[in-house]
Structure formats: structure tokens, C-alpha cells
Design brief:
The protein is an alpha+beta fold. The protein folds into two domains: 124 residues, SMAD MH1 domain (Smad3, Chain A), CATH 3.90.520; 152 residues, Tumour Suppressor Smad4 (Sandwich), CATH 2.60.200.10. Helix 1 packs parallel to helix 3 and helix 2 crosses helix 4. The protein is elongated and about 60 Å long. Belongs to the dwarfin/SMAD family.
């Protein structure tokens, strides 16, 4: 590639850099290290990096492979993947253990077949979500369950949801898929169950490139303003993946998602833990080993809990720290019904 062409690509990359968390961590402090890394990339990898950064990870791109080890002149001693993630996604990132390779990254841990290189595509990584310190319980939490006063169109199919019923059981989905997805708007299930046979699936409303469970295609006879507002925040949605040991969720949208499952809660918990997953973050939301100890688990005030299910609310939280006490008070949410482990 002509030198002027490479210089133009580097300038395009530099225009996409993030703001600094502090002056000493600013892009100018990383410029020397970044330029040293860019020089080590092949022409096609530099072009791919430009496309990925400019599209903000809108599509599942290939790996950008860089030599292992620190580039010369890196004062901070940052690995290539940390350097690019810090430059283009998270200015406050410091260590590689804060990152997780996404399931479709082939160059993660040398899985591309060459141990001398590793992937540094910043959109092949997510940050790990950790439970945050909860705020004080919502003042109305002691008032008991409150159902949303949402008008229902006469032709809308309403599934009677009860806390004495686990809704859709995993025992009904023994047809070869590892999970099925049910999309809900408050207490109304919209559309059919979506069977997942691949190791991962995108759930989205607007995804420029890619495939999966498109919620925008699900018709409904009536949608309230609250539902329409919440659906407008789903965007690129999430990536759900089955990986060794459990199920992970990656938030691809621009708004938080809220997740609960039996294995996110301590064994002696009196209610389900709801985990807030920020945009760009991942969390292990179901642990296969822990699930074996949760058969027949029942929560006070909430009835039996299906030990093989995950519930995800888009943009709206629920639980003791929110005005919504139950997920059925959330405008848009997803139920992940896991198949019985074999």
C-alpha cells in the first residue's frame, strides 16, 4: 500500500479516538504507542481496523492480528488489545483482565493457529460487568406487587402470568436447540418462541449487518407509548452465547440491560438478584454447575422459580431498588428458556 494511503487510514483512525478520562490518560499520551502498533499491522488489517472503528462494531468483523508483546516505545506497557480498546472505546481501561473476548473472536487466545499473534480488534472485546452497590430500597417496595395499568387491545393475546407458574418450562423445548427465546411486553407475550441452535444469537431491533432474533419484525395489535419508547432503546440489542460453563450476555445497545437468573443469586437469597449490564459490557448470567443445586427453588412472594431460565429487561430495571417490583412491570423484556442439561 502506498505510504500516503496508510497515512490517510491512520488519520481516519485518530479522528475516531475517545475522550480522555484524565489528562495523563489522554489520546496524546497513547499516540506514540498507537503509531508504533499501526506500523506493525498489515495493510488489510489496518483497513479492517478503520472500518470497524468507524462503524462502531455494527457488524461481526474479522480479527485484527498484531504481534504479541508491547510495541517499542510504549511507556505504559499496554498490550495491543488494551491499547486499542482504551483509545477507541474505554479511556478508563487499565488492565487486560477487565476485558473478555467475544465468542466470535477467532484470534483470542491463539485460536487462530498462530501463537505469535493475537487479536486486537477493539470490538471483539467487552468489559466485564460486576455487581454494583445497590441504592436504598425503593420506598414503595413494601406495598406488594403492582400490576401495570396498560390497556389491552381486544385482539391482543394475553398470557395469564402468575408467580405460582413458571410460565414456559424448559421441559417443553426438547427439540435439539439449547434454548428458546420469548419476547414479552409487560405481561403479554409477543410472537412465537424463537429456537436457538447456534452457539450464539443476536437479539435486536436495528442491526445494520447480521442475523438473529429481530424484535422489530414482531407484530402487535396494540403498543402503549411506554412500550414504543422502550423498544426505541433496544437498537443493536444483545448477543447471547453458550460458552463452556455457562451462558453469557453482551450488551450491544446504547442503554443498560437488566438480567436475573437463579445462578446470579446467592444460595440463601430471599429474592432474585438483578444485574445491571452497561453498554459494551458482558456478564456470565447462567452457570451450568450452580444450576444443579437450584431444583425446586422458591422465592418468598414470588413463587417457584424456574432454575433453567434467564430474564432480561431492555433499558428498565426492576426489583427492590426500583419502582417496578417484578419484571412483568417492565415494558420490554426477554425470557431465555434453557434446555435441560444432558
Amino acid at each position: 500500500m502506498f505510504r500516503s494511503r496508510r497515512a490517510g487510514l491512520v488519520r481516519r483512525l485518530w479522528r475516531q479516538r475517545c475522550g480522555a478520562a484524565s489528562p495523563e490518560d489522554g489520546p496524546s499520551a497513547l499516540k506514540l504507542a498507537a503509531n508504533a502498533l499501526f506500523k506493525k499491522l498489515k495493510d488489510e488489517e489496518l483497513e479492517l481496523l478503520v472500518q470497524v472503528v468507524e462503524s462502531r462494531g455494527a457488524w461481526e468483523s474479522g480479527c485484527v492480528l498484531a504481534p504479541r508483546g508491547d510495541p517499542r516505545g510504549v511507556k505504559q506497557g499496554l498490550p495491543p488489545q488494551v491499547l486499542l480498546c482504551r483509545l477507541f472505546r474505554w479511556p478508563d481501561l487499565h488492565q487486560s483482565h477487565e476485558l473478555k473476548h467475544l465468542c466470535y473472536c477467532a484470534g483470542g487466545q491463539g485460536s487462530c493457529g498462530d501463537l505469535a499473534v493475537l487479536c486486537c480488534n477493539p470490538h471483539h472485546f467487552s468489559r466485564l460487568a460486576v455487581p454494583e452497590t445497590p441504592p436504598p430500597p425503593y420506598l414503595k417496595a413494601s406495598c406488594g406487587p403492582s400490576w401495570p395499568d396498560e390497556p389491552q387491545h381486544p385482539s391482543t393475546q394475553l398470557l395469564e402470568f402468575s408467580y405460582n407458574d413458571t410460565s414456559l418450562s424448559w421441559s417443553t423445548i426438547k427439540d435439539g436447540c439449547w434454548c428458546k427465546l420469548a419476547y414479552w411486553e409487560y405481561r403479554t407475550r409477543v410472537g412465537r418462541l424463537y429456537a436457538v441452535h447456534e452457539a450464539s444469537v443476536n437479539v435486536f431491533c436495528e442491526l445494520p449487518w447480521g442475523s438473529g432474533f429481530c424484535l422489530a419484525q414482531l407484530p402487535a395489535a396494540y403498543r402503549s407509548c411506554a412500550v414504543r419508547r422502550a423498544r426505541g432503546k433496544i437498537g443493536r440489542g444483545l448477543l447471547l452465547s453458550r460458552e463452556p460453563g455457562g451462558v453469557w450476555v453482551y450488551n450491544r445497545s446504547e442503554h443498560p440491560i437488566f438480567v436475573s437468573s437463579p445462578t446470579l443469586s446467592p444460595p440463601a437469597a430471599c429474592r432474585l438478584t438483578v444485574l445491571k449490564v452497561l453498554p459494551g459490557y458482558s456478564a456470565k448470567v447462567f452457570d451450568f454447575e450452580w444450576a444443579g443445586d437450584r431444583e425446586g427453588w422458591q422465592l418468598p412472594r414470588e413463587g417457584p422459580c424456574d432454575p433453567h431460565s434467564i430474564r432480561i429487561s431492555f433499558a428498565k430495571g426492576w426489583g427492590p431498588c426500583y419502582s417496578r417490583q417484578f419484571i412483568t412491570s417492565c415494558p420490554c423484556w426477554l425470557e431465555v428458556l434453557l434446555n435441560q442439561p444432558r
